[in-house]
Amino acid sequence: FSNPRGIKGVSCLGRCKGEQACATRCFAEFGSEDLNNWLSCTIEENECVKVPKNVDNSAEEVGYGSALKKFDPSTLVGKWYKTDGLNPNYDLFPCQTNTFDFSDDSKKELDMGIFLRVSRPEEYGGGFWDNNLKEHMIVDASMPEMPNPTGRTMHTEGKMYGLKFEENWFILGESNGEKDVPPFKLVAYKGHTLQGNYEGAFVYAKEPIIPSAAIPAVKEAAAKAGLDFNKFTRIDNACPIGDSLNDASADTGTSTKDWINLVVGEGGVIDWISPGWRGEYK
pTM of the full predicted structure? Predict the structure, then answer.
C-alpha cells in the first residue's frame, strides 16, 4: 500500500468478485511481486480474508480413459501455439504461445514459458498488456514406477498471482507430423485453487492457426474423451504489432500526480465508490 499501483490492484480485484477473466486483467494492469505477496499473506498465510474450507476437489481426481498411455515429453520441447480452447476463463486469451524445455538431464520435468496478451476493453481505450509467466511440469508418463491413479500425463503445482494451485494435464491425442497429419497436441486439464475447481481443454499446434489437415484427428481424439471439438473457440493469434500497455514504472508513488490519479483518475477510488460520478452514464 506504499504506492497507488498496489491499492488499485486490490480495488480492481475486489470488483471482480472472483471472476477469473476479470482478475487476470487486473493482474495484467497492476500486477507486481508486492501484490502477489500481499495476496499470499492475507488469504493463505494469515486468513485475513475468509474463503470456503474443505472444497470438494474429487472431480480433479477423475481422469480420462482415453488419455495416452505412453507419451514422449521430448515431442513437447520447443514452441507451440494455443490455437483453440474450451474454457473462456483460462484458454481464450489472444496471442498465446507456450515454450517447453527440459529442467534437467533426467528428462522427467519440463519448464514451461507462457506468453499471452490480455486485452483492455474498447470502452476503456483498447490496447493490450503482455503477460509472461512460468510453470514447472512433472511428467508422470516418464515415471511408470510411481502411483498415478488418475492416469494423468503431467502435473503442475505452485503459485500463480500469489495463490496456490494444483493442476493435472492429460494428453488426449497428438501427431508428430507423420501420415500427413500436421503436429498437434490435444490437452485436457483439471485443477483447483482456493476459488474452487476448474477444467478445460485446448489444442497446441506449430502454427498460429491449426492446419485443416489436423482437425479430423483432433476431433476424433476429443470425441474419445467425451469432448466436442465444435464447442472449442478459435484463439486469436494474429498478434497485431503495437506497443503494449505494460509500464513497470507507472503508479510508483513518486509524485503527487500518482496519488491524485488514484483518487479521481479512471479506475480510482471514487470510480469504485461512486461509479458514474463524472456523469458518463447519464
Answer: 0.80
